Amino acid sequence: MKDIQLLTTHEQLKTLSDPFRSQVLLRLMEKPMTGQQLSEVFDLSRARIHYHLKELEKNNLVQIVKREEKNGIIQKFYQSVALGFVADRDLLPHPEEMSESVRQMMINMLERSQKRVLSASEEALHDEIGSQDPSEWKYLSGAFEFKATEDDFKAWLKKYFALMEELSEIQKQNPTQDAKLYYFHSLGIQVDEPLFDRQKPEEEES
Question: Can you give the residue ranges of the HTH arsR-type domain (predicted)?
Answer without folding.
Answer: 11-91
